[in-house]
């Protein structure tokens, strides 16, 4: 089974997303929650990094956190899947390990 990596801090304030992407292995999942959702919007400096990472790992962003921050789901980077809380639970249940990048 794979690892679910959760990232909750803005990549514009901390380097935990960059560290997570460097450690995630082929087949792992990365879920952006809370302020980390800012990285999922196309056109910012992290968009190309996420697009590259999507070739080897599964990328997700929590839709309710996008909405809470007034972000347009239509502008999410290609390769990043929007999920709800039920999808979050499903990811956690399907993973052998969960690593939170705080």
TrEMBL record:
Pfam family, one: DsrH
Segments traversing the membrane: none
Gene3D superfamilies per the UniProt record, alphabetical: DsrEFH-like (3.40.1260.10)
InterPro entries recorded: DsrEFH-like, Sulphur_relay_TusB/DsrH
Alphabetized PANTHER family for the sequence: PROTEIN TUSB
Record protein name field: Sulfurtransferase complex subunit TusB
């Amino acid at each position: 089974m794979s690892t679910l990596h959760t990232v909750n801090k803005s990549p514009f304030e901390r380097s935990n997303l960059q560290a997570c992407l460097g450690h995630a292995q082929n087949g792992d999942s990365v879920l952006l929650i809370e302020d980390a959702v800012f990285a999922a919007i196309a056109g910012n400096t992290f968009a190309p990094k996420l697009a590259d990472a999507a070739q080897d790992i599964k990328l997700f962003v929590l839709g309710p956190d996008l909405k809470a921050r007034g972000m347009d789901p239509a502008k999410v980077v290609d390769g990043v899947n929007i999920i709800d809380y039920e999808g979050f639970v499903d990811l956690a249940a399907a993973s052998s390990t969960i690593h939170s990048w705080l």
